[in-house]
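Running co-folding for flavin-adenine dinucleotide.
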Amino acid sequence: MATKEYFLPKSLDEATRLLAEHGLDLLVMAGGTLAMPLINEGISMPEKVMGLRHAGLDTAISSNGAVIIGATATFTKMLALKTVPLLQQAARHIGGWQIRNMGTVGGNLFAPPPAGDFAAALLALDAQVKLSDSDGHRLLPLSEFYTGFLTTALAPGELVTELQVPIPQGKTAFSKLGRKHANTPAVVTVAAHIIVEGQSVTDARIALNGVGAHPIRATQAEAALVGSPLDEQAIAGAGAAASQECEPFTDANASEWYRRKMTDVYVRRTLAQIAG
Ligand SMILES: Cc1cc2nc3c(=O)[nH]c(=O)nc-3n(C[C@H](O)[C@H](O)[C@H](O)COP(=O)(O)OP(=O)(O)OC[C@H]3O[C@@H](n4cnc5c(N)ncnc54)[C@H](O)[C@@H]3O)c2cc1C
């Protein structure tokens, strides 16, 4: 291992100061579930590493109609988050218990596709991501955080420090298709939050993972629902729209064709759960 210095800041201020001081030479590590295998195999050889474990970013607090989740909160911690069942469901569908114990909510935003199941649930909940550097903070809708395949809006010197998640006002559902029942990468993951008032859908948020360069909102599927009753016809329209707008890929788990087909099926199933 080429690492010569390891920093373990005790606060966010110390972490952002270290990052400003050492710049891109410093590898940020949270749970290490993605970073450590790359180091162990010699693919990544950082001379300096900063662990975030003791920086005080692992809290989950409900406040003013929102849940504020620290970036280093683990998926295991999310399993206990009773106020937002969609996030509990997403956490339950990530890896095995070792990954849920070590992997973090913030780290999931950087995971290569088809990982990103938790991020999909955050997208469906319209979460905002807080980015911090030594000069302060900025808030960004999570949908604007992703800029492409393995690229994000995170600027040099910034850390992801929080996810701010409004408590959902409508009904939510989560479905994931993998090649196995559990501990399996996504063929497609769907997270949805739907508000129905009277007879019609007034707000729809559908997020997909495993069918694009990063987790995405299926905005055309959402538009197909708003203003209609959440009935079979509208649900079929949303499934068809999602399967058209996603940009799936072929890998060892599934072909592009199968991912697209299953997007239609799983969007319909997820919405049918909400429709009851
Ligand atoms: C065996 C296995 C199975 C998995 N299964 C699933 C699955 O089913 N579904 C799924 O969605 N995901 C899955 N994953 C991915 C998993 O969600 C991620 O590995 C995890 O979320 C990464 O978090 P981490 O804290 O370990 O990241 P780390 O390994 O610590 O960091 C990963 C990257 O993110 C950056 N980073 C991390 N935190 C921050 C921060 N706060 N600010 C700035 N940069 C940061 C690091 O610099 C690094 O580049 C799996 C991973 C493994 C290894």
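Result summary
The mean pLDDT is 97.
Residues 27-35, 52, 71, 94-95, 99, 102-104, 106-108, 110-111, 115-118, 159-160, 185 surround flavin-adenine dinucleotide (CB under 6 Å).
Job closed.
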